[in-house]
Write a sequence for this structure.
């Protein structure tokens, strides 16, 4: 009998909690509706396509190939990123650069984002600061696997 | 014999050795740049310093000959400090452009920096700029910024090839390596400079930017381009995962025991594969009239087998002629013998090797083929081919072209051609004479075979395949076995040749 | 003739009210659960850029369900499979006809009960109709020829019949207190006062009865925490093989059951359309004041009072549905047979004792 009382009380308490949430949230919704924004919003929902959650500054999103001041990619095709990549999703091929100070640049640079595990090792390995994961792009859905293989142009464009 | 102590170990070594060699024999390695086992010591880099009891300061071990009772410390704090300082000086003007350097991964500066370095340099001056992409030979690129002036290159050209194109010019801080009078290095052994250079100062234009060294998988093989039979490492790139087309042979280098003369190979052995790879034949082709039909191997073998069987049923297998070359391995010669003995009367076997050239007085032999002795010992009573003899008495002709795809002057005797009903070519590369044959088979190059050669000195050299042959290509021995099996006159044994 | 016309109008009005409220409830359920859980809830359906807090969601749902394939599994009993959702729907729709929405009003000399059917055994009729709903469940589960559907249907039948007992018992006390089975009379009885100021609502006279009634009634609606018949989240229930409009009908029936339960609770225990202290001529404060009102105002107030109470109980049921987790089947049976039925009996006993002592 005592048990039953405890259970009953717990049940009532439970509904009181949800009811409290209901009324406070409703109240805040109402305040927002009439234009008072002093208090918290009534819901924690982020309305995704319109609103986005601010990414932490070190968030590892899709890659970007950084550029030299003259606009050419910084990458010198040293293949360190391809070496370190645990997903084996980077492929780089090198070619001669006309500039003797640069000598070497990537003629082909592809990252298969469908395979990438976003570990950021490539960024750490790069001796030229040529690859970063700071595009903030997390919406990487595509209609085919091939669309997720980004080539050097897509990677250089960064946020696009 | 001398008794010495190295790092507390008592050793008994032959007189006259340098302490570096003595230590190496005892399994103690001493870092060095300018010392090279096949070159006379020069003592310019000072990386090899060791503590010798009684000496006031560390001495270079590469040029210090041992004395009885010598006590050597190779890792005392003083020595380590000295090496670190040497490295710091060597790196003072070094561009440290490892990301674009083809030597990275097998560079002594990198190795020793890891072992002795890890300092932050005290040099804050502007680094000296020098020429970075200097062409000093057909395939040699010199980067003077990376050079540490060890003079290995100079000594090689002076002492080994005795051509002496290179030298150290200017003095002091301005010293730099260069070719005298701007005449490029033209010896037939120029590629060895790339291996010799302990840093990335001399790099190979043929390997330039192809990949990074740590992706390479060195596979031992025997150079098939002359009878010397130098031991080589074929550096194979296994290809990036899911991009198999990125793989392949990328480099051929001498093994440390390449020849008794030292770890050298000639430029033909080093670079010939490039052209061969670029011309590789990969498909079996049936030239039917003007059109080119592509067929499966089994189908082609059954067509050819039926033709040979027809000959054999009428007892005229002597009208089958095989033109071979002595680049076949000993094991393939056994296959040739089995093929010949599979028929009665025996088919004719002829040898058509490229003519000897003079060779040179260093490594290259006059013979262009690696296994002439093995061919002679195979017991196939080989005779050189006289194209005229094909005119009357040959119905089916098999020509096995050498690694270059050359078939001598056969094709120039066109009137012979019309009298032969079926002609087949087996060649690792595409050739201009392909259309003259009814059937063209691709075959494996020697690096893709396992077997043995008998070189100019009568010694047997075993080797194994560095990688599989292209899908439709088989070794010559396998082709003969398949053919014999297709005639219904022998079992096709699976397995290597 | 005019009586039939009035009846027809009443039927149409009540059914319309019923269905619209049920549709609205689908929205309320979504929104209320969202607000309870700090979410926003469905808000994307819009017409001409007008979002209206997702009020168009029910229409979007309806359109979606209409365009879905009306799939009958090839192995199913086609007739019964199609019939089942209508059976469920029908009995709930019939049950609501017994609910009095307001007092008797006079329009031009005709007395009109704001109630479709005021049978002398209205309560029994209502209970009977609710019980018949179980056929919908059984039929749907059985006719799908899907073992999960069938098992779900059996679970549902067992649950509904078990709780039927508790439900019936919980109302016996009430019938004893208001000696009538006619719902309009039960409501009328609740208009009187008790102890001088409390309205004679069922909940005050029969608190235990109300508790048992409310729990069993929620169980009858087959919603969380008693949603074992359907258990859509994992155990799969009787309408596993339904989709499109027929499935929608089941869902609609669910919401209609909520309304019926809410209306029943209001009618039986919360004074129905009665408003405390509101007599036919105005407000009579218990401390002696009197506010005079026109009789149409009174009627309107009473109808509104009924609606407010129904709305409250709908809200409460949704609150409960989004608060508690589902109970286990053995717990369900324990609760029904070992707690609620004895409590119902106890309630009858207590009521009888108190009544005989008076
Ligand atoms: S983030 Fe990691 S897995 Fe992705 S490309 Fe870079 S190294 Fe490879
Ligand atoms: S590590 Fe950096 S410089 Fe090297 S290939 Fe990758 S992106 Fe280019
Ligand atoms: S180019 Fe290489 S081998 Fe020649 S001196 Fe410089 S570092 Fe030594
Ligand atoms: S190796 Fe001895 S001084 Fe260079």
């Amino acid at each position: 009998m005592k048990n039953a009382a405890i259970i009953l009380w717990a049940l009532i308490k439970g509904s009181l909690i949800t009811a409290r949430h209901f009324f406070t949230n409703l109240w805040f919704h109402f305040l927002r509706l009439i234009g008072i924004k002093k208090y918290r919003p009534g819901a924690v929902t982020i309305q995704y396509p319109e609103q986005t959650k601010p990414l932490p500054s070190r968030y590892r999103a899709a890659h970007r190939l950084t550029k030299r001041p003259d606009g050419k990619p910084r990458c010198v095709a040293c293949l360190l990123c391809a070496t370190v990549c645990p997903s084996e999703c980077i492929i780089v091929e090198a070619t001669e650069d006309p500039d003797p100070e640069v000598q070497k640049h990537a003629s082909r640079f592809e990252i298969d984002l469908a395979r990438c595990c976003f570990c950021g090792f490539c960024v750490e390995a790069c001796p030229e600061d040529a690859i970063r994961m700071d595009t903030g792009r997390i919406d990487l859905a595509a209609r085919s696997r091939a669309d997720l293989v980004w080539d050097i142009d897509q990677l250089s464009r960064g946020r696009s | 014999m001398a008794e010495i102590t190295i790092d507390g170990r008592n050793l008994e070594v032959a007189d006259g050795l340098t302490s570096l060699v003595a230590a190496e024999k005892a399994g103690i390695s001493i870092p060095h740049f300018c010392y090279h086992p096949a070159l006379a010591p020069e003592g310019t880099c000072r990386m090899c310093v060791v503590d010798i009891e009684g000496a006031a300061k560390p001495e270079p071990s590469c040029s210090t000959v041992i004395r009885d009772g010598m006590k050597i410390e190779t890792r005392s704090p003083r020595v380590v400090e000295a090496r670190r300082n040497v490295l710091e000086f060597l790196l003072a003007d070094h561009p440290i452009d490892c990301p674009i350097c083809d030597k990275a991964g097998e560079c002594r500066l990198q190795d020793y920096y890891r072992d002795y370095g890890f300092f932050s340099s005290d040099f804050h001056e502007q680094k000296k700029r020098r020429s970075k992409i200097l062409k000093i030979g057909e395939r040699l690129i010199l980067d003077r910024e990376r050079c540490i002036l060890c003079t290995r290159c100079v000594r090689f050209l002076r002492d080994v090839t005795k051509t002496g194109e290179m030298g150290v010019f200017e003095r002091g801080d301005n010293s730099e390596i260069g070719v005298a009078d701007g005449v490029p290095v033209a010896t037939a052994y120029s590629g060895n400079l790339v291996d010799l250079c302990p840093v990335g100062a001399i790099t190979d234009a043929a390997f330039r930017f192809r990949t990074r060294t740590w992706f390479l998988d060195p596979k031992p093989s025997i150079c098939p381009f002359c009878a010397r039979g130098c031991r080589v490492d074929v550096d194979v790139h296994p290809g990036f995962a899911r991009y198999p087309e990125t793989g392949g042979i990328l480099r051929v280098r001498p093994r440390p025991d390449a020849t008794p003369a030292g770890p050298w190979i000639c430029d033909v052995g080093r670079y010939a594969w490039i052209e061969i790879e670029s011309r590789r034949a990969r498909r079996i082709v049936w030239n039917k009239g003007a059109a080119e039909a592509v067929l499966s191997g089994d189908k082609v073998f059954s067509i050819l087998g039926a033709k040979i069987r027809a000959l054999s049923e009428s007892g005229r297998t002597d009208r089958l002629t095989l033109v071979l070359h002595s680049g076949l391995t000993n094991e393939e010669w056994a296959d040739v013998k089995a093929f010949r003995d599979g028929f009665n009367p025996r088919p004719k076997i002829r040898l058509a090797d490229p003519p000897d050239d003079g060779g040179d007085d260093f490594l290259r032999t006059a013979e262009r083929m690696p296994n002439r002795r093995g061919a002679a010992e195979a017991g196939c009573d080989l005779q050189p081919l006289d194209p005229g003899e094909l005119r009357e008495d040959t119905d089916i002709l098999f020509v096995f072209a050498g690694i270059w795809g050359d078939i001598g002057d056969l094709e120039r005797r066109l009137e012979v051609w019309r009298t032969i009903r079926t002609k087949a070519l087996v060649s690792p590369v595409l050739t201009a004479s392909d259309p003259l044959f009814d059937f063209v088979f691709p075959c494996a190059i020697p690096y893709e075979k396992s077997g043995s050669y008998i070189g100019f000195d009568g010694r047997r050299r075993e080797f194994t395949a560095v990688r599989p042959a292209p899908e439709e290509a088989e070794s010559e021995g396998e082709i003969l076995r398949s053919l014999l099996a297709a005639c219904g006159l022998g079992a096709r044994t699976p397995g290597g040749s | 003739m005019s009586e039939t016309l009035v009846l027809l109008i009443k039927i149409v009005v009540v059914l319309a009210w019923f269905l619209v409220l049920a549709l609205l409830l689908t929205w309320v359920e979504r929104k209320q659960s969202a607000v309870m859980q700090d979410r926003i809830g469905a808000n994307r359906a819009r017409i001409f850029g007008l979002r209206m807090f997702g009020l168009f969601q029910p229409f979007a749902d309806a359109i979606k369900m209409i365009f879905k394939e009306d799939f009958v599994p090839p192995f199913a009993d086609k007739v019964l499979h199609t019939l089942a959702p209508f059976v469920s729907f029908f009995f709930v729709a019939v049950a609501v006809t017994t609910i009095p929405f307001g007092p008797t009003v006079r329009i031009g000399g005709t007395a009109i009960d704001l109630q479709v059917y005021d049978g002398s055994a209205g309560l029994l009729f209502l209970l009977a109709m609710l019980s018949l709903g179980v056929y919908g469940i059984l039929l749907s589960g059985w006719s799908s020829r899907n073992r999960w559907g069938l098992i779900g249907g059996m679970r549902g039948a067992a649950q509904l019949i078990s709780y039927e007992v508790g439900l019936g018992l919980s109302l016996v006390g009430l019938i004893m207190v208001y000696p009538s089975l006619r719902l309009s009379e039960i409501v009328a009885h609740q208009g009187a006062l008790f102890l001088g100021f409390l309205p004679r609502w069922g909940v005050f006279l029969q608190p235990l009865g109300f508790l048992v009634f409310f729990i069993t009634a929620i169980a009858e609606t087959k919603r969380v925490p008693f949603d074992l018949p359907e258990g859509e989240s994992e155990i799969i229930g009787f309408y596993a093989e339904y989709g499109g409009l027929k499935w929608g009908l089941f869902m609609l029936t669910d919401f209609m059951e909520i309304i019926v339960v809410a209306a029943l609770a209001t009618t039986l225990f919360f004074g129905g359309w009665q408003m405390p202290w509101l007599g036919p001529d105005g407000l009579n404060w218990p401390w002696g004041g009197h506010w005079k009102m026109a009789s149409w105002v009174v009627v309107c107030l009473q109808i509104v009072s009924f609606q407010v109470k129904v709305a409250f109980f709908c809200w409460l049921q949704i609150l409960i549905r989004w608060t508690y987790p589902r109970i286990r089947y053995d717990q369900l049976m324990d609760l029904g047979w070992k707690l609620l039925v004895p409590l119902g009996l106890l309630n009858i006993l207590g009521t009888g004792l108190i009544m005989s002592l008076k």
Notes: Residues A 75-81, 92, 125-126, 128, 130-131; B 99 surround iron/sulfur cluster (ligand 2) (CB under 6 Å). Residues 45 and 51 of chain A are 10 Å apart (CA to CA). The domain at 64-156 of chain A is CATH 3.30.70.3270 (Alpha-Beta Plaits). The helical segments of chain A are 2-33, 80-84, 121-125, 152-157.
